[in-house]
Amino acid sequence: MNYKLAVIPGDGTGPEVTREAVRVLMRVAELHQLSIQTTAHDFGAERYFKTGELLSDASVDALRSYDAILLGAIGHPDAPPGLLERDILLKLRFSLDQYINLRPVKLYPGVRSPLRNCAAMDYVVVRENTGGLYTGVGRQLQAGTPDEVAEQTMVYTYAQVERCLRYAFEYALRRHADTPWTGLTDAQRAAGYRAKLTLCGKSNVLTYVFDLWNRVLAALKPQYPTVYVDYVHVDAVCIYMIEDPARFDVIVTTNMFGDIITDLAATTQGGMGIAPGGNLNPEGVSMFEPIGGTAPLFTGKNEINPLAAIGSVGLMLDHLGHPDAAAMVDRAIAKTTPTMASMQAGKMGMSTTAVGDAVLANLS
Ligand code: IPM
Ligand code: MN
Question: Ion ligand 2 — residues with CB under 5 Å?
């Protein structure tokens, strides 16, 4: 198999973590007889400061010819707040119609969670990625006057909700294709369930939007009789993520709620340094990125944890149809975390490159 991969290291610690992720990817590819040709693209702060270009439509079109994109991080303290994030990162997600943001939450061996009771934590958040409060729909009226009004509108179409929920159902099934999810009750298992899908919303307040989500959920449910479906308000989801994360298998939610709860989730799994992510267009070009940002305080110090970027490469391999290669990456991360003092004490014990070396050595 031959793949063309666009690599966008981006800003801050992005290049450092991306370097390690690419090293791991190339080795895993070799072991699985995959040929991957990488092309670097310099979108980000430096290019913007030099040329004024953020991300042109022509650049987006050029990216369409790749099989996947690997991205480090985008953002810079000296750029106007939010500009690079909006005009590069969000533009990529929206123009390439990457409508799913997949964020697995897993506690690897030896990783210290801030949670007291965290024997089991292994769930996935499916965040809707191109709609809701991120669409920029809104307005300001009478700006600058005491009567000023600002609106930001959460917009969802039936089609957007349906494709997101369908993806979540399919993903839940695929995740437990071999053995049913271990968190099911005996009664649920006896009733034939294999997986659980939790819709995270706020139907008691955001009545229009979550009436739609719940109706689409109910409409799809009969097509997935082995997926146990439940609905939980977002505020309660936050409680359970702290008190009883083992109750979750696959959580599906809106763009904004997904943004917020995945930061909370990342914290419970040991921090941003270990939380991978994928922006998926199942019919198009997908982009894989650690969910953390540019970490300006760590930039250039060879101190940042590259495991989130390495985990994102695992998600990419899985998405490209190579679950064995993805599992190899996952096993290597699980072998590496117990050796990292940083993952227990919350401070850096191993350099960025040393973590990359360890993961490479642990590939088997
Ligand atoms: C994320 C980030 C982005 C988002 C920002 C940088 C626009 O927080 O990937 O979660 O809100 O989606
Ligand atoms: Mn975020």
Answer: 259
